[in-house]
Amino acid sequence: MAVRLEKAIGPLLPRALSVLGLALMLAACGVSTTSPSAVSQGSNATDGSQSAPQVSYPVFSSLQMTGPDTAFGLAALAPQTTLPAWNLGTMSTAPSPDVAFLATTDGGTRWRDLMPPDPVASGQMQMGSALYFLNARTGWFGFDLVSQHGPGSTVVVEHTTDGGRHWQLSGFASPYQGSLYLDFTNPSDGWVLSLSLPGAGQMAKAVFQTTDGGKTWRQVNCDRDRTSSSLPDDSYPDGISFNRARGFVTALYHGDPYVWVYGTVDGGHTFQRVQVPVPSAYRNDYANPYPPVFSGQVGSMFVQLVGQKSVLLVYRTTDFGATWRPSGGPPVPSSADLLTSWWSSPEDGYVLSSDGRDIYVTHDAGLTWKANSLPAGAASPLQGPQIITFYAKAHGLLYTKAASGEGALYTTTDGGEAWTRLVDQVLAH
């Protein structure tokens, strides 16, 4: 079944372009910036639509399901738009109109582009992008605008409360340009992790917080401060996760003897290393932790232990993340490759095998696992990472892009036991 991509059209109201003048490229981490004047009052779309041109089949860089039939994604539409080979953020070498904000309400058969009117001056370069939705109506996405005058960037954050039909715009200056991660715990409280490009085992880090749904932002932590409570500048972060005022940054750090997890109990103002014990059988391995998911005080976290026989373990907490222990279930075969995984709850987890042929599923936080085969086309040689997302236990989407340039979107309604292909188009990217 072929996917349909539809473009929402309608009157475009003026945008608050002042986001581009937000004290661009502040080099010093110690300066906190907000931009209430950058909040847009406009709307971008009506319910009318028209068929998209043949070139506009999407190359997804992120996907999130928010219901059995609803999902949102960021995707590249133009042939000159490129994505990196690893999933530590996305990079675009073209102006932002070549990146689409896509939404579906029928499980992925039809998609509409609900990208707000372009707030970016023509030719402005975009780098990292991130997407986070609380439900089918309330969500945010952000992206970096590369400075042409210094090492930093302007981070633009768009906010919707009606599933993408209307947007509010805000922005702030970051000392770094590279990857972004977003997380919100409710419609008001959210965080952005802004990162530099990777190099020499490091990605510089700054954390920004909002308490008004994204209208204003302030910097609360930065590795350049080099205090006992700031994040260190080593490692390659792979995400940020908050549970009320408690939050965690996790990172890949090859060769390091400890599990790179830093926690905060005050909304990101201070971070301290979290002790994550490693079973004796794996103490000679290095660890790759991934952001935890919470329900109340209970949380789960995937940790890769990379060695001669690399495995994946589930770690559990019952005290909001103050202490972590392996769940006690069997290890899942893994590799040193970046993990493709999803938690729909602290009990329900999904992991793709390193060869892309199977999906491992647990519904008891890793105590037991079931391996389900993926469609043969999803396991062909890949270009860049696969993406999976699930809602509750049963409904999921899987996106793959082969080295040939062919992309495919699959859907499941039984937790990954059977998959139906939704995309059968060759993506000329």
Task: Tell me what you see in this structure.
This protein is an all-beta fold and 429 residues long. The protein has a domain at 1-220 and 378-429. Helices cover 0% and strands 39% of the residues. It is built from no helices and 32 strands. It has strands at 4-8, 49-51, 59-65, 71-76, 99-104, 110-113, 126-133, 139-146, 153-160, 168-174, 180-184, 190-195, 205-210, 218-222, 236-243, 246-252, 261-264, 272-273, 286-289, 293-295, 298-306, 311-317, 325-326, 332-333, 341-343, 349-352, 358-362, 370-373, 387-391, 395-401, 407-412, 420-421. The strands form 7 sheets. Strands 2-1-6-5-4-3 form a 6-stranded mixed beta sheet, with no helix packed on it. The model is unreliable at 4-28, 30-56, 79-96 and 424-429 (pLDDT under 50).
